[in-house]
Amino acid sequence: MSVLRFGPFSLDIGRRRLQREDVEVSLQPKVFETLRYLAERPGRVVTREEFQEQLWPDTFVGDAALTRCVKEVRRALGDDPKAPRFVSTIPKIGYRFEAGVEQTGRTVRSDGVRVLAVLPFRPLQDDQRDPGLELGMADALITRLSGLRALVVRPLGTTRRFTALDQDPVAAGRELGVDAVVDGSLQRVGERIRVSVRLLRCDDGGALLAEQYDEDFEDVFHVQDAVCRRIAAAVSLELDHVDAARLARHGTDDIRAYHHFLRGRLGLDHIVPDEARRSIEHFERALELDPGYAQAFVSIAEANIIIAWQGLDPAVDYERARQAAQRAVELDPQIGSAWSFLATVAWEYDWDWSESDRLFQRAVELAPNVVDTWGHYSASCAFSGRGERAVELARRAVAVDGTSSMANAWLTQALHMAGHSEEAVRVGEANVARAPGAPFALFTLGIACLHAGRVDAAIDHLEQAAATARPDFLGVLTHAYLRAGREREAQTLEANLRELSSAGAAPPLALAMVHSARGDSDSFFEAMEEAFERRGLHAPLLASEPLLEPYRADPRAQALIRRLALPHSR
Predict the structure, then answer these.
(1) Distances (CA, A) of 314 to 309, 322, 391, 534
(2) pTM for the complete prediction?
């Protein structure tokens, strides 16, 4: 039988004995069972109903009996319910064992763990939530573990929905299709922080790692260092000097800079220009505190690219993105995402396709298991008319994380732009079924349905995507309304787009899509000429978007397309 060790205590299951160091602590039978049941499930919320079923299966007892048992457990452990080290109360739900637990006398398999998910860390109480810290701790571990070439780590965008206090981490891991899951909790009291971490196998729930760290808050980086090393050891990874260096790397030693960085990252989640601008303020504040914070420069590059997609002056935004990414590479040339953003600027603004390919290849060499890099690489090929290559790269993204709505949306987009309409619709429908509210998944399915002639279905998906109010989404929805003969809705949206366009808040392609549906070629080419003058993401669609095929034979289109110097036209 196993022995559970936590803090100074050992709980011998076979001998039914609790010891503090070498001194035995007396427990009544039901109190022992209560402690055993909690300690065998560290970090998981055990409901009152579950205790009733497990400890009193044939007898109904009220809450008072369980409350008494938990009180006796705390007394035996010297635990304070107001500042628990071992057993915390989850109001109206149940209890959770907070300490890390080491288990001896039983072998837990570590073989086969090559796909990992890090769930957002959780507080002990719902009124102690700190989204920046909870997501930031997970993001820090994901970023560093993703650098290990033998390990595939799900991105935060895939795992961020698992934030409930009573979340079953093993169930989440199975839903994410991973071999093991990192589950953690946080408790901050003043300038102290307690971090509990478990690494659980998803096939049998076995704990590969269970540890607790009590540190000053400013030492949270040391906790991240220790957790990453212990996870690598727990899954039996053999690290060469490159992987070891990547694992040891963290962005800053300044806790204030880190705090601003976390707040900035929260603002990039919805890919909205106004939020991206506010995020940049936090990243710049982080850099004032630590000018060598490479990840802050990477995030400034990402934020400026988001702004450029819908902004008034993409030339300025892309140049800011380029400079930030270049500075990140100077500070740390091993950050794959910095190379990826340089590649994005190279194709979206410079239309330098060979340079973009070179930079993307460097990015995937450094971080081959990052979904976003494969997805953006796929998009560059799709927009430049290399449809089959785009499909191949998007399938690489899906191979890294088949549960990612973004990976499957990129595949939907690539299939659509390569002319595989029916497969695009099938992939898109499956994606939206898994992630019903994901805007890009809805948009790519909507445009695929539109090209496949399923106009009513397209409108349904595009209306949901357009709830984000992105002007490019609104332009395609207006196009769909006109295709369906819904003139009133189209006129309302068109008026809105014209107002946004006058304010410089909508890309020219948005109105170009409206003109294309109306068959107004002069207005269409006037809008496309503006798109080419401003450069940026949308201009290459004249050469590659299937919905614009009827216009490509026009000499005006041919003249514009020649300016792109596309790879297949050289």
Answers:
(1) 7, 12, 28, 7
(2) 0.75
